[in-house]
């Protein structure tokens, strides 16, 4: 099992003047600890499960490009970008920029968006759920076309592009891997089966088992190789390594390939020491059933 981290709570010691130093140092320590990916939030306001909206939040891709300059090997991505936040053509260009500047380390994390308050607060349109999913699928199609030799037009219901030109192309071949966040069984997981390289789920082993069963069924219906999809799950960080590894073992046993740790204070270097010396090497030995 691979271990990743997401930097979700940006209300850190030292406040805004120390955010750059604190987050840059966290990315370096994550890389040194052997983590696979450093994920960041992509929101305008802080989200309710983590803290009040008034808490610190940075623009996601600016932060990722900053972290790219601090690191050399760890992969970088948003977990995840709301499709409503940026025009898909611009979003694909931004992800391409991150991939090129990082030397081919970008993920493309995207979802249907959900936090209405931040949209209304900054005047960003927040269409109904059905339309957001339609836009999500078109966004995925646009990104895939921009990361292909086809520079021609794209004509969708919600987006029309006269040219899907993207130069330079991403360094990652054949393109940056796509992560679709969320566990919605009827729409989200079907889009994962159609377009994505990875899913990101929430819940215990029983819940995840059910979600992966739904994903497997969508893959069978669409003729997609279920084994080709990276199965990742959000896991609360626990400083008790034994308990954390127990939870990771239960998830690995049902087919999870990566745990994204959330809730860890990135300014506490002892947390990264725990990951480096105990969690990462022992999690690497965990494996699950054959796909």
Could you please describe the fold and organization of this structure?
The structure is a single chain. The strands form 2 sheets. This protein has a 9-stranded parallel beta sheet. It has a two-stranded antiparallel sheet with strand order 6-7. The chain has helices at 19-32, 60-68, 88-101, 116-122, 129-146, 188-195, 205-222, 241-253, 269-283; strands at residues 2-7, 37-40, 75-78, 81-82, 108-111, 154-155, 160-161, 178-181, 198-201, 230-236, 258-262. The mean pLDDT is 97. The protein has one domain: TIM Barrel. Helix 3 (88-101) crosses helix 5. By secondary structure, the chain is α/β, with parallel strands linked by helices. The protein has 9 helices and 11 strands.
CATH class call: Alpha Beta
> How many helical elements?
9
Low-confidence stretches: none
Which range does the strand content fall in?
A: 15-25%
Give helix % range: 25-40%
Can you say what the CATH homologous superfamily is?
Answer: Luciferase-like domain
Order of helices and strands: EHEHEEHEHHEEEHEHEHEH
Mean pLDDT: 97
Tally of strands = 11
CA gyration radius, whole angstroms: 18 Å
Anisotropy-based shape: globular
Q: CATH fold name, please?
A: TIM Barrel
Q: What is the domain tally?
A: 1
Termini separation: 15 Å
Question: What's the quaternary structure here?
Answer: single chain
**Class derived from helix and strand content:** alpha/beta
Q: Please state the second-level CATH architecture.
A: Alpha-Beta Barrel
């Amino acid at each position: 099992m691979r271990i990743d981290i997401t930097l979700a709570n940006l209300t850190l010691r030292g406040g805004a003047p120390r955010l750059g130093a604190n987050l840059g140092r966290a990315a370096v320590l994550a890389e040194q600890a052997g983590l696979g990916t450093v994920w960041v939030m992509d929101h305008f306001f802080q989200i309710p499960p983590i803290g009040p909206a008034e808490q610190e939040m940075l623009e996601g891709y600016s932060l990722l490009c900053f972290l790219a300059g601090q690191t050399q090997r760890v992969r970088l991505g948003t977990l995840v970008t709301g499709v409503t936040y940026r025009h898909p053509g611009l979003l694909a260009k931004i992800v391409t920029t991150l991939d090129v500047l990082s030397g081919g380390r970008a993920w493309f994390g995207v979802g249907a968006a959900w936090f209405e308050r931040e949209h209304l607060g900054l005047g960003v349109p927040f269409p109904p759920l059905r339309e957001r999913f339609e836009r999500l699928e078109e966004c995925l199609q646009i990104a895939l076309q921009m990361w292909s030799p086809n520079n021609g037009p794209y004509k969708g219901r919600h987006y029309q592009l006269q040219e899907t030109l993207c130069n330079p192309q991403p360094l990652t071949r054949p393109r940056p891997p796509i992560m679709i966040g969320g566990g919605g069984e009827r729409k989200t997981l079907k889009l994962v089966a159609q377009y994505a390289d990875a899913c990101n789920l929430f819940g215990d082993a029983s819940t995840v088992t059910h979600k992966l069963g739904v994903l497997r069924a969508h893959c069978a219906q669409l003729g997609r190789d279920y084994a080709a999809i990276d199965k990742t799950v959000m896991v609360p960080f626990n400083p008790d390594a034994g308990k954390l590894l127990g939870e990771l073992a239960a998830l690995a046993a049902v087919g999870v390939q990566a745990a994204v740790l959330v809730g860890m204070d990135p300014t506490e270097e002892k947390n990264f020491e725990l990951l480096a010396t105990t969690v990462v090497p022992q999690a690497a030995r965990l494996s699950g059933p054959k796909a």
